[in-house]
């Protein structure tokens, strides 16, 4: 224990002050940091800070203690009189002993990244930061322990001086699990640990059952306050993935474990027998959660000749990024008459390998094997559409039925052991058809496209079978980019509640889609290049790539002038022009077009800046994406002749009005109009950063803008939240900065800004500032 010294304050009886504050005149966190970074402290020992007479400490000293507690890096003990203001402030009664109750806020993503950079001695990628933050729920101790474990087990490594995640953790270390269990028992006691473990083995326990089985005040609420349990109306579950895995995989057996996937996995981990039916059900459930090593571990309980074991192991290979190894497993199973294996073969050829000839063969085999089975017809139709799109994209004709290879003669032979796969072929077919419909309408600019895309966007991503999830989400994200470019390309509701292991398996594809959206929304080049370096490091780390291929990554790099692909792609005039329909190659060609147009525009070669020539006539919607991207990224840097050419092309392609207004104002030199247009663009395209890029000029432009003065009582028209947003707009904060300060989403800020504009009958931030100034509204 370390006693933190304090001293009496002269002239203030019964008041003390921490001595460490004598060396700091700034914020409390500087003093707290000084205490935490003591070079004499043993890094391997848990530090305990003791503050005597805490009830006598002044406010600055209490602020230091608050910073130490929130850091969650050390144990803090306070001593005070039982009737003091400090004890009364923190004591509570819930049919439990009185005591200190503090709500510890988890680390933010930025704080997590800083901690990991210190621990790993290299900056972590966004993928690694997000994964470790999710698994540890932002708890510093769990975060650091998991990072050290990743280094020791080899799933955290280094690429290009960045710490990256190299693969999915297996969570199969029984010794580490038992050690975690013992640490929990020491800290929370045996009764609380038994309750926590019972919840973990159920996966999610209904709330009414948990309230009846456990003592709510002594057990459930205490575990929730400790950050170990999550209590929601749907049920009670273990909050941190690190704890959940330890509670399940520890070798200390639980009597009569439940028949849930977690319970069956625990039974198998302690060496007890499980039934074949339980092994099949549990293996598929673990696969859907992205826990591939555990799914294989459970599948080993099945006989080697069981077709469902081979199918499950093949799906693990497919999800892990080894489609050809999966095919080698599936071919003999399909030849024995297994419909699931045949469907998976066709899916791999169409969505992963993009092999048109083999795809025709596998589709023919699947159709012959399925006959009129209704549960497979939607899947066959979806794969047929994908196959035709591939043929179109690659410039080849779809083979006629007479050209297709005949079905395998073994395709209808009986299966040795009928597979009882949990893979929902009918549901997978429906999802793929809906996604294809959404993309087709978006690419074809159908009037119903926004409604169709919005409807299919209501799906829950983790309900889509994992074997096709990456392809489905990339296709649907592309449809959203074409139809709803101002909105998030991957809505938060898609991934709400998604297990961290599953999200990790598609993180590279997700990061690429997010960067594509950021680039098309006009995000700054420096920020895009930082994203690109992060994406390159994580890509080369070896995680499953999903739909992502190196040519697409090279095209992204080329479009942001990253420098890695100049030798590979060559001069812009020699890059082949080609466009397709649905595969990632289409995006590669579009991104190459962005890079080419920007390069020509930067060199002032106006005669060559022609978006229509870069992309085929069928790609009208992609042309609009390209021209919008070029305008948002080059509005300040490009010269007037080039902007005039872009304006003409933008009008021909029916680009959004706010983009056209911005171009017109820039060309005419109308400063107030340009400021107002930039504000509108920032509302509709918050990632463009135009509002920040002209920040130095906005004050003059605001004074120059003419506005109408109205009564001072108009502030009463705004809600409390709208007033907070308006005050921050007055200060010149960007939408992202407002969202961060109020801890709400950017879309919520946009909604409040629109409501404010409507209620006050104004059109821009310029008018809002003038209105607030004219009516003498108080600044915050």
TrEMBL record:
<dbReference type="GO" id="GO:0006355">
    <property type="term" value="P:regulation of DNA-templated transcription"/>
</dbReference>
<dbReference type="InterPro" id="IPR016032">
    <property type="entry name" value="Sig_transdc_resp-reg_C-effctor"/>
</dbReference>
<feature type="region of interest" description="Disordered">
    <location>
        <begin position="395"/>
        <end position="417"/>
    </location>
</feature>
<keyword id="KW-0805">Transcription regulation</keyword>
<keyword id="KW-0238">DNA-binding</keyword>
<dbReference type="InterPro" id="IPR000792">
    <property type="entry name" value="Tscrpt_reg_LuxR_C"/>
</dbReference>
<protein>
    <submittedName>
        <fullName>DNA-binding CsgD family transcriptional regulator</fullName>
    </submittedName>
</protein>
<dbReference type="GO" id="GO:0003677">
    <property type="term" value="F:DNA binding"/>
</dbReference>
<dbReference type="InterPro" id="IPR036388">
    <property type="entry name" value="WH-like_DNA-bd_sf"/>
</dbReference>
<feature type="domain" description="HTH luxR-type">
    <location>
        <begin position="711"/>
        <end position="776"/>
    </location>
</feature>
<dbReference type="Pfam" id="PF00196">
    <property type="entry name" value="GerE"/>
</dbReference>
<keyword id="KW-0804">Transcription</keyword>
<feature type="compositionally biased region" description="Polar residues">
    <location>
        <begin position="405"/>
        <end position="417"/>
    </location>
</feature>
